[in-house]
Design goal:
By secondary structure, the chain is of the alpha/beta class. It has seven helices and 13 strands. It has two domains: about 70 residues, Ribosomal Protein L25, Chain P; about 170 residues, Alpha/beta knot (3-Layer(aba) Sandwich), CATH 3.40.1280.
Length: about 240
């Protein structure tokens, strides 16, 4: 069934009013009709299984038939702290990390980042990134829309990570795959986890030292050096597989 995200003010007892751009999508793209089934998600891991009651020019009315947990969220909230890469790699990273179950994404301006965003450009870019996260969430039946934050500095990212239960930083100069397996296993037992991924060219050594000094676990992802758009996906895939029940 097609999925749409709603806010609380769109829910009225057993009715849901779909408004905005989703109306055109329902009418003219999907060409749905009264009686068709859809799912409305409140973004809080709760699904409303509905039938279309009425389609108007500016609103689509849904009748709620059943309410149920979405059931697709991981038991651990994972935050991806991603060093901002060049060109459209960030869009790819956002799309795939949402599919893999990430809870939120924090773009980080690290020392080896080539991309420089001023305040005005950063806001506009963040809005586009958030749209990509929402589209990916719809595609893979997420119970929430992961938040994509505006870019922050490495220092600000570390401060944000202090609020999480556990943090990992894959680093190409780290060794000890058995220790990395233990780090992953420990992460799966926590409520919130952070992953720090460097940009093209990786981390500066002092960035890793700063992170480790703040309690993060440096780890290896194996003998091969992974691209920035691969490293986060690799670790997220491992965590997703281990965490799912």
């Amino acid at each position: 069934m097609y999925r749409f995200y709603i806010s609380e003010d769109q829910l009225r007892e057993n009715e849901i009013a779909i408004e905005g751009g989703d109306v055109n999508h329902i009418r003219n793209v999907l060409r749905l009709e009264p009686g068709d089934w859809v799912v409305a998600c409140d973004g809080k891991n709760r699904d409303y299984v509905c039938r279309i009651q009425e389609i108007d020019k500016d609103v689509v009315l849904l009748h709620v038939e059943k309410v149920q947990p979405t059931g697709t969220e991981l038991p651990v909230r994972i935050t991806l702290f991603q060093g901002i890469p060049k060109k459209d790699k960030m869009e790819f990273i956002i799309q795939k990390s949402v599919e893999l179950g990430v809870y939120e994404i924090v773009p980080v301006m690290m020392k080896r980042c080539v991309v420089k965003l001023d305040e005005k450009k950063a806001k506009r870019t963040q809005e586009r990134w958030q749209d990509i996260a929402e589209a990916a969430a719809k595609q893979c039946d997420r119970g929430i829309i992961p938040v994509v934050h505006e870019p922050v500095t490495m220092e600000e990212a570390i401060d944000m990570a202090r609020e999480l239960d556990y943090n990992m930083i894959p680093y190409e100069l780290q060794d000890g795959i058995d220790q990395s397996r233990e780090i992953v296993a420990h992460a799966c037992t926590r409520e919130s986890v952070g992953i720090f991924i460097g940009p093209e060219g990786g981390f500066e050594a002092d960035e890793v030292e700063q992170a480790v000094a703040c309690g993060m676990e440096a780890m290896t992802l194996g003998k091969r050096i992974l691209r920035t758009e691969t490293a986060g996906m690799a670790l997220l895939s491992i965590l997703m597989f281990q965490m799912q029940t």
